Amino acid sequence: MTHYICTTCGIQYAATEKPPEHCLICEDERQYIGWEGQRWTTLEAVRERHHNIIRTLEPNLTGLRTEPKFGIGQQALLVQAPGGNILWDCITLLDDVTIAAIQALGGISAIAISHPHYYSTIVEWGHAFDVPVYIHTDDRQWVMRPDSSIVFWEGETKSLGQGLTLIRCGGHFLGGTVLHWAAGTEGRGTLLSGDILQVIPDRRYVSFMYSYPNLIPLPAATVRQIVAAIDPYPFDRIYGAFSGLVVKADAKAGVAYSAERYINALEGVFPETG
Asked: For burial by CB atoms within 10 Å, which of 9, 186, 192, 242 has the most?
């Protein structure tokens, strides 16, 4: 029996004798089936062809990404906190080098995931560090490898202690979650957003989508809901889902402007284009 991994989204499935016929994540309209059709691999094969880049992004925040790019290509973030480190989102590749590097940084006390596209090999990570993996219960149906290490949380917020708070925003997925880190950015607050709020190439602003690859927008009411969910929390910086996509300053104002611009575009209030 093998835990097969979809090569397009990087998500690991429950053990089967043969590769599954379908990747339910990729067949959903928020994702897509790879151009070469549905293909599968294993964690062992990923280890042979890829390696992780681990680097400090700011004090007490470390980024982890895989090279060459695998799956969606997201970055995981390790928040180093006095009472225990939190891994935000996840990448598929987990190997001995990565485990040793994380242990040298203080290990992991818990893992929290923004939404199903980044479930990757969460069970492997949970087992390797013997920690819980927090997923909002609204996204329970998208867990392709059920396991006792997965903890489904309910409600609109969940404290992880030490000024670290999970906030359910919805939007991209019903249980779409961001992580607020009160001590980040020299105490001004940092938001780790996955792509619930997607930092765009401009890097001053964000966007909101039901599907990013298929360019399906969210309705105005949902965008307002996302902004309202994070409004009580101060933050000056946002780290998005991918390496280098960071709103470095005035991030809260940037979110407000981004939402206004997005809603105006939906409603046809937009600068003339000629």
From this structure: 192
Residue written as tokens 């009160």? 182
How is residue 271 written in tokens?
Answer: 């600068």
What CA–CA distances, in Å, run from 210 to 219, 222, 245? 9, 10, 19
**Integer Cα distance of 55 and 174 in angstroms:** 32
What is the chain's pLDDT, residue by residue, as a tens digit (274 residues)? 999 999 999 999 999 999 999 999 999 999 999 999 999 999 999 999 999 999 999 999 999 999 999 999 999 999 999 999 999 999 999 999 999 999 999 999 999 999 999 999 999 999 999 999 999 999 999 999 999 999 999 999 999 999 999 999 999 999 999 999 999 999 999 999 999 999 999 999 999 999 999 999 999 999 999 999 999 999 999 999 999 999 999 999 999 999 999 999 999 887 765 4
CA distance 170 to 176: 4
Helix axes 220-230, 251-266, angle to 10 degrees: 170
Class of domain 5-266: alpha beta
CB atoms within 10 A of CB 100: 9
- Residue 260 per-residue DSSP state: H
In the block, residue with structure tokens 């549905």 = 38
What residue ranges do the domains of the chain occupy? 5-266
Of the chain, the end-to-end C-alpha distance in Å amounts to 60
What distances in angstroms separate CA 223 from CA 169, 209, 257, one per listed residue?
9, 9, 12
Residue 2 main-chain phi, psi, to 5 deg: -130, 140
For 208, counting Cβ atoms within 10 Å of its Cβ (0-12 exposed, 13-18 middle, 19+ buried), the class is buried
Show the CA angle centred on residue 201, arms to residues 198 and 205, nearest 5°.
55
